[in-house]
């Protein structure tokens, strides 16, 4: 039986709301950083769940885990759960935008949270993309995790297609 590119990449397509496919939920145990968590799902997804207020130490810790998890990857897609997120301190906001970033992001999907929280998070992520000179890193807001995962699966497919075309033309 032939293996699809999605299977070869380590993803499982699973039914989501509305009959769409979503990125797999195969993952390692989440790592806790304060009250927040981060986990990685094959082949390129980082999942961060924010719970409560965010200090600079929290953001530094999450960034260190994220940077470590990026080793050996050409890119990372980022899924951010804002359903229980509190407000970041001013120092945390500054570090989010100006702290060292070694993760080659290629798409960020934010979901849940209040309109204000999602809007502020999107503005900070867009600022991060500009200051860190990330290329081709769209940031999108979603009402549900299933919608965010479906969008990230499409991003993964697009990136994979582009890499295949680039490799063939080289």
Automatic annotation (TrEMBL):
In residue numbers, the region (Disordered) covers 1-21
Q: Please, which domain of life does this record's source organism belong to?
A: Bacteria
| UniProt organism field | Chondromyces apiculatus DSM 436
* Entry protein name: STAS/SEC14 domain-containing protein
């Amino acid at each position: 039986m032939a293996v699809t590119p999605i299977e070869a990449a380590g993803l499982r397509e699973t039914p989501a709301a509305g009959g769409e496919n979503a990125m797999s939920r195969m993952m390692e145990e989440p790592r806790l950083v304060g009250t927040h968590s981060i986990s990685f799902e094959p082949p390129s997804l980082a999942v961060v769940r924010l719970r409560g207020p965010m200090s600079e130490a929290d953001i530094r810790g999450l960034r260190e885990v994220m940077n470590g998890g990026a080793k050996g990857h050409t890119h990372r897609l980022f899924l951010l759960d804002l359903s229980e997120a509190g407000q970041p301190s001013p120092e945390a906001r500054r570090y989010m935008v100006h702290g060292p970033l070694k993760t080659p992001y290629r798409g960020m999907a934010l979901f849940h949270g209040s309109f204000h929280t999602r809007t502020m998070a999107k503005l900070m992520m867009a600022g991060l993309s500009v200051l860190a000179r990330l290329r081709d890193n769209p940031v999108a807001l979603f009402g549900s995790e299933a919608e965010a995962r479906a969008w990230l699966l499409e991003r993964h497919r697009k990136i994979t297609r582009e890499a295949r075309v680039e490799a063939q033309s080289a």
